[in-house]
């Protein structure tokens, strides 16, 4: 994966660059707004990470400029933690995802993976299949090994999100935002509770486990190996 | 300008303006008197001159030249330093009289005889000696009767004396009025100026840091008292805010120093000697956990501050509060079950409010989590939403240990934690976030006794029919 990070804070940029290189990805770094915009316009990237506050040209303007120039590389927008409104503005400007600083590298990586490997064809498939697990989104039915599984609406949403992102690590925060629309950090085990309920229905009655916990990162749904 | 404070005061200025008007009216009255007296006295003199002339004319008409001469003799006997006559031939030769011949003027005239010409007559000399500039002012009527030219004149001294009396009355009256007004204005402003001085002195001391001082109130309930009262209220509010700010800074410093110190201790102890890889990993994980907790506290503080700033209000939209309640309760029901609690949400009424759905979701989530974390299992948590007049009332009640009466209001303060809660998870910011969100929505939050347990009741205004 080839990633561009536009970030003027040296330590944040180094932190991201170090992590991406360890994971075997290519990285370009721009320390100012104009420099970043030029790189993003002239080279192809699998994902672009843009900070909100930049010298020369702010992050929002870069996002808008890229989108109006027809560049469709996935964009992750970095906001300050108190910037509740920045997030909405960033998404409205055309960013695909946002992340509040300070963030954990695993969180950024999970989001980059979720965005970069998104296949443009697989937009709203009505039938999702992962191994022997099958979901009909329209009829709202789930089967595994041909056996029907009864799910609550919120369990269905959780499973649908995991199946659409099969093979990718989904962090706790990603699940909270996408499945429950919670934009804060709960002080109880909301995610753990719901994932374990889903597991008891999708995995427990069967031989193999599809939903796995990645310690310190999140969850992943995959074809059992 | 270096004027004493009293002379620059408002009351002094008012007194001065009043003086100008008062002085104006005094001068107007005296001026009118002056003009009226002048014209009245001139009239009297003119009538007297005209009467004398009439008598002469009468005598000439009835007895001819002899009668006129006789009458003239009689008049001349009454000649004095106030009353003058000139009886001459048209060629200028004087027949009789107490005026020099070259003063002859035809008709009505007012004239002055300069000092160097007062010699010709003893009467004029006598008149001149009484006038300050040694000149004589006359009002005269000159007429031709038969073959003679006759001029009768009166001394204008009396008129001028009266005029001067009135003028000096005006001058002295104006002077005294002005002085009295200045003195009065000064005296009037001494009192208020002293009070303002005392207020200013107190304010300077407050600026120096004596925030507990209050402005003096005289008890007269006048405008200065009202002003001082309002300023005192403001000072009390500022003092409370500053105290809570100071408390919050201290609490923040304390709350963040603790995890940082623990983090340092862990790192130091693992560094002291060589350890296994597993031990290193455990230490690093623990360190990450500690720093995450500190970051989380910062995040929550910033979030509370941002909500309190009120900028989110621009994102308000109309929403069904009942749906938020259903959704959040549905999510937490299983969490509560896992922790051994029973959660119920009934009597959820339809209520539309103008608000921020994301924040209202967090508000309810915080209240439910607060109950889950502080009520020992098996506790009951009941959420309800009903309408009361033009408000929506959302309450989260539990049957846990509750909060002692005196501390119930304090639980909405930043970083405030009951002593027994020090060991349970949480930053002590959940409820202050709730309070900030309620405040943003122009609502009210109360902590009530659920006997047993705690009931947090939130009242939000329902959305209006229009707008």
From TrEMBL, chain A:
PROSITE patterns: OMPR_PHOB, RESPONSE_REGULATORY. It comes from the Bacteria. Residues 125-223 bind DNA. SMART domains: REC (SM00448), Trans_reg_C (SM00862). The keyword Transport does not apply. Keywords: DNA-binding, Phosphoprotein, Transcription, Transcription regulation, Two-component regulatory system. One of its GO terms (biological process) is regulation of DNA-templated transcription. Pfam families: Response_reg, Trans_reg_C. Gene3D superfamilies: 3.40.50.2300, 6.10.250.690, Winged helix-like DNA-binding domain superfamily/Winged helix DNA-binding domain. SUPFAM superfamilies: CheY-like. One of its GO terms (cellular component) is protein-DNA complex. Residues 125-223 form the OmpR/PhoB-type domain. The modification 4-aspartylphosphate is found at residue 51. GO terms for molecular function: phosphorelay response regulator activity; transcription cis-regulatory region binding. Residues 2-116 form the Response regulatory domain. Signal peptide: none annotated. PANTHER family: REGULATOR OF RPOS, TWO-COMPONENT RESPONSE REGULATOR. This is DNA-binding response regulator. It comes from Rhodobium orientis.
TrEMBL record, chain B:
Residues 251-464 form the Histidine kinase domain. It catalyses: ATP + protein L-histidine = ADP + protein N-phospho-L-histidine. The chain crosses the membrane at residues 12-37, 166-188. One of its GO terms (cellular component) is plasma membrane. It is found in: Membrane. SUPFAM superfamilies: ATPase domain of HSP90 chaperone/DNA topoisomerase II/histidine kinase, HAMP domain-like, Homodimeric domain of signal transducing histidine kinase. Residues 193-243 form the HAMP domain. Its EC number is 2.7.13.3. It holds the Pfam family HAMP. Keywords: Kinase, Membrane, Phosphoprotein, Transferase, Transmembrane, Transmembrane helix, Two-component regulatory system. This is histidine kinase.
């Amino acid at each position: 994966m080839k990633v561009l990070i536009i970030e003027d804070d040296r330590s944040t940029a180094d932190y991201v660059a170090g992590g991406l290189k360890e994971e075997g990805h290519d990285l370009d770094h721009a320390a100012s707004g104009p420099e970043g915009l030029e790189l993003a316009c002239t080279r192809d990237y699998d994902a672009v990470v843009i900070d909100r506050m930049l010298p020369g040209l702010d992050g929002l303007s870069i996002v808008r400029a890229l989108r109006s120039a027809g560049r469709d590389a996935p964009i992750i927008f970095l906001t300050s933690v108190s910037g509740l409104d920045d997030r909405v503005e960033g998404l409205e400007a055309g960013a695909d995802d946002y992340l509040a600083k300070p963030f954990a590298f695993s969180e950024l990586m999970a989001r980059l993976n979720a965005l970069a490997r998104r296949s443009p064809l697989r937009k709203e498939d009505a039938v999702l299949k992962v191994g022997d697990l099958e979901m009909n989104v329209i009829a709202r039915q789930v089967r595994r090994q041909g056996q029907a599984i009864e799910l609550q609406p919120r369990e269905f949403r959780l499973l649908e999100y995991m199946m659409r992102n099969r093979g990718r690590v989904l962090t706790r925060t990603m699940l909270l935002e996408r499945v429950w629309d919670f934009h804060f950090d709960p002080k109880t085990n909301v995610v753990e509770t719901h994932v374990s309920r889903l597991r008891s229905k999708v995995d427990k009655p069967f031989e193999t486990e599809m939903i796995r916990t990645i310690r310190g990162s999140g969850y992943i749904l995959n074809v059992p190996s | 300008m270096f004027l004493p404070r009293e002379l620059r005061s408002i009351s002094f200025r008012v007194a001065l303006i009043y003086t100008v008007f008062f002085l104006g009216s005094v001068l107007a009255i005296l001026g009118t008197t002056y003009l009226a007296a002048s014209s009245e006295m001139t009239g009297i003199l003119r009538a007297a001159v005209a009467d004398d002339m009439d008598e002469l004319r009468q005598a000439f008409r009835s007895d001819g030249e002899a009668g006129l001469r006789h009458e003239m003799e009689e008049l001349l006997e009454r000649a004095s330093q106030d009353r003058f006559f000139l009886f001459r031939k048209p060629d200028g030769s004087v027949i009789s009289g107490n005026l020099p011949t070259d003063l002859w003027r035809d008709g009505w005239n007012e004239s002055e005889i300069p000092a160097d010409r007062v010699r010709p007559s003893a009467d004029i000399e006598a008149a001149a000696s009484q006038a300050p500039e040694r000149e004589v002012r006359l009002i005269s009527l000159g007429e031709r009767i038969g073959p003679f030219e006759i001029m009768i004149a009166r001394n204008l001294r009396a008129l001028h004396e009266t005029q001067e009396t009135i003028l000096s009355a005006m001058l002295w009256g104006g002077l005294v009025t002005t002085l009295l007004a200045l003195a009065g204005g000064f005296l009037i402003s001494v009192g208020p100026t002293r009070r303002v001085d005392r207020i200013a002195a107190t304010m300077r001391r407050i600026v120096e840091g004596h925030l507990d001082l209050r402005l003096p109130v005289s008890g007269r309930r006048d405008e200065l008292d009202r002003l001082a009262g309002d300023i005192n209220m403001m000072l009390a509010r500022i003092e409370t805010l500053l105290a809570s700010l100071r408390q919050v800074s201290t609490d923040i410093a304390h709350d963040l120093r603790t995890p940082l110190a623990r983090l340092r201790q862990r790192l130091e102890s693992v560094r002291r000697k060589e350890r296994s890889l597993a031990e290193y990993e455990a230490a690093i994980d623990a360190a990450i956990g500690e720093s995450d907790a500190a970051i989380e506290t910062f995040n929550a503080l910033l979030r509370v501050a941002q909500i309190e700033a009120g900028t989110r209000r621009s994102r308000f939209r109309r929403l069904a509060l009942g749906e938020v309640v259903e959704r959040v309760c549905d999510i937490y029901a299983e969490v509560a079950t896992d922790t051994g609690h029973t959660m119920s949400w009934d009597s959820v009424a339809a209520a539309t409010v103008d608000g921020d759905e994301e924040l209202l979701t967090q508000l309810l989530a915080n209240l439910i989590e607060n109950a889950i974390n502080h009520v020992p299992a098996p506790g009951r948590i009941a959420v309800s939403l009903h309408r009361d007049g033009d408000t929506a009332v959302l309450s989260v009640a539990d049957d846990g240990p509750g909060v002692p009466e005196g501390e119930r209001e304090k639980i909405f303060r930043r970083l405030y934690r009951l002593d027994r809660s020090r060991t349970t998870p949480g930053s002590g910011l959940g409820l202050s976030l709730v309070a900030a969100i309620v405040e943003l929505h122009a609502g009210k939050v109360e902590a009530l006794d659920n006997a047993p347990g705690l009931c947090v009741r939130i009242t939000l205004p329902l959305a209006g029919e229009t707008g």
